[in-house]
Amino acid sequence: MAFPFLQELPVSILVLLVVVLGLYYIKSSKSQNPLLPVNWPVVGILPSLAINLHRLHHYIAFDLLSPSGHSLKFAIASIHIFLTCDPVNIQHIFTLNHTNYPKGEEFADIFDVARGSLFTVDGEPCRRERTNYQGVLSSPRVVGLMNTCCRDKVEKGLLPFMAHMALTNARVDMNDLMMRLVFDLYAMTIFGVDTARLSLDMPTVHVADAMDTVMEVAFIRHIVPAFLWKVMRRLDIGPERKLAAAQAVLRCFTMDMIMKRRANDHVIVQEVPMDILSNYVNDPRYNDDLLKATLITYMIAGRDTIGTTLPWVIYNLAKNPHVVSSIRDELAPIISRKPSVAGVTMTMLDLEEVKALVYLQATLLETLRLYPPIPIERKSVVTTDVMPSGHEVCARDIVLVSIYSIGRMESVWGADCREYRPERWLSEDGRQLRHAPSHKFLAFNSGPRLCLGKDIAIMQMKIVVAAIVWNFDVKMLDGQPIDTKLSCLLQMKNGLKVKLNKREM
Ligand code: HEM
């Protein structure tokens, strides 16, 4: 052998690498906050992030943001990220200097299934689209339809289904049930069709599955470099292959709805006032692609958010029976005034009746504080700026705001911030709701891009939760892991298995 040292080379390189990394580790642990993960050369905190991916939001809140004083800058390769949950920074990003922090081109690429719609645009197109959405969502006919659909779905779909499951002592996955309920509700509101996914035979919901895939693969697109997922998309491999199939299902479904409407042979919901599609279908500003993207955005806005939140409400109520008792105490006087109807064994409240229920609303807000359905907001940076916390951000940096972490910050919510305590939302006498500014309670976003469906969502969730709590005892099955999916939504990974008991009244 002419060069025996060559055989030793890989071992030498390995030893050298270990020594260099060891020295780097010692150096960085002296210069860095020792409570934070090591910031390795090139890969940054990626190794620590990868190990903790299964508990991502907890990791961000308690391993990254808490020890760093609520804001942190790090880099992965050439990508510079500013992560924060500091309300002062949030107010700066979402309101005071919001024009410097648009969603950006990369966000629009990630959610290409909704390209061109309000969800993905900034600046003037955003202002224009917001005006249109506001007009649609406040139109008395759309609001009327939403109320009727919600009432009908709960009365004729949810309650009989739950009564059947209680009678047969069957196990129910409340996560799946709520997702089906809300899917049906929004399909009726947007397209005017009853998809009947909440029925005893529990049909497969391809469109809902496709929506979940969009959010799961979008999450991957957020965390891998853009060039990598774009190559995978071009080659049609890995998660991109799954996404392409899901996008096709979604586009096909919406196009089918549009075509049926144009042919005027859609299935009409009884006495339908006016659904969302009918506000757009003859509008020349919306070509087919934009119309599909807009309808998909409505589906995401309503179905994904309410469908993700309701299972967490039920989970928190099942874990806190005293909260259930307080809700029933609040419901009792209203229900006692309702005339009893012969043969009707279940009671539900109408929109007007739930409006004044502050304790019930406090339970929803408390759930959204701890389990926001959209746990992270992403923004881009237009020009160099200094955050109120003193951190400098530069053009093309990524800004990530952890909504999940804000709700668990002691400095904002007090020492009991990790407890589920609806009372924190109520005035001393318990009669009024306390206001929390949106830069501290970010579940519905903040600033000029505040959620446009907040009031609708709260009303609908109140109607659903009041009906469940009044008519049923819900018992969570022991020993089930409650984890979250890796997704842009805070969805439950393994469902929420419960047993139901019909309450005797
Ligand atoms: C629990 C229920 C809901 C929560 C927590 C919620 C939360 C949010 C959040 C965080 C955003 C900002 C998303 C982003 O830009 O990345 C948003 C935007 C929006 N939401 Fe909601 N939402 C809910 C329900 C609804 C409902 C039921 C509707 C309509 C039927 C709706 C309509 C919208 C619209 C149109 C936007 C876009 C606003 C814009 O980009 O300027 N939301 N919502």
TrEMBL record:
Cofactor: heme
Transmembrane intervals: 6-26
Biological process annotations from GO: lipid metabolic process
UniProt KW keywords: Heme, Iron, Membrane, Metal-binding, Monooxygenase, Oxidoreductase, Transmembrane, Transmembrane helix
Binding residues annotated for heme, in chain numbering: C451
Example GO molecular function: oxidoreductase activity, acting on paired donors, with incorporation or reduction of molecular oxygen
Cross-referenced CDD domains: CYP86A (cd11064)
SUPFAM superfamilies: Cytochrome P450 (SSF48264)
Stretches assigned to coiled coil: none
ATP-binding recorded as keyword: no
Domain of life assignment: Eukaryota
Matches recorded under Gene3D superfamilies: Cytochrome P450
One Pfam family of this chain: p450
Alphabetized PROSITE patterns for the sequence: CYTOCHROME_P450 (PS00086)
Family recorded in the similarity comment: Belongs to the cytochrome P450 family.
Protein name: Cytochrome P450
Species the sequence originates in: Triticum aestivum (Wheat)
